[in-house]
Specification:
Elements lengths: L8 E6 L3 H11 L5 E3 L6 H10 L8 E5 L7 H9 L9 E5 L4 H10 L3 E4 L4 H14 L1
Parallel strand pairs: 1-2, 1-3, 3-4, 4-5
Length: 135
């Protein structure tokens, strides 16, 4: 299940649902090709994390839940892609429900992809494998 280039990827998850955070870390925490950074609960915390990080400690990719308080996924994505310090970090949105509008807006704003939240351990591994192929 390792990425094709065997480079360990650091992932920042922005997710406000404790159950989804728990599943993400439980299902993906043992993968040798991933470093799961401490999760954040909303877009404001994404920026707090990035502002405290140095270029060498930026995540290799960010996964944003669309439905977060304070600053949702689309809002966070727009700000990330309009900031030259963060614009090159690959960003993925994921949501329980995806629709054509969310996909279109996300891609226009610079997301690499929009994914449905997985419901199984296999689904989480497939999602991450698909993401790793896109970066």
């Amino acid at each position: 299940m390792a990425s094709s280039d065997n480079i360990i990827k650091k992932i920042l998850l922005a997710e406000d649902d404790p159950d989804d955070v728990s599943f993400f870390f439980q299902y993906l925490g043992e993968r040798p090709d991933l470093i799961l950074l401490p999760p954040v609960e909303n877009g404001e915390e994404v920026f707090d994390y990035l502002e405290k990080a140095h270029n060498g400690s930026f995540p290799d990719l960010i996964i944003l839940d669309q439905n977060m308080p304070k600053c949702n996924g689309l809002q966070t994505l727009a700000i990330l892609k309009n900031n030259t310090a963060y614009e090159n970090i690959p960003v993925f949105l994921y949501s329980t429900y995806t629709d054509a509008y969310l996909v279109k807006q996300s891609i226009q704003l610079g997301a690499r992809s929009v994914l449905e939240k997985p419901v199984s351990v296999e689904g989480y591994h497939k999602m991450i494998n698909d993401i790793l192929r896109l970066i």
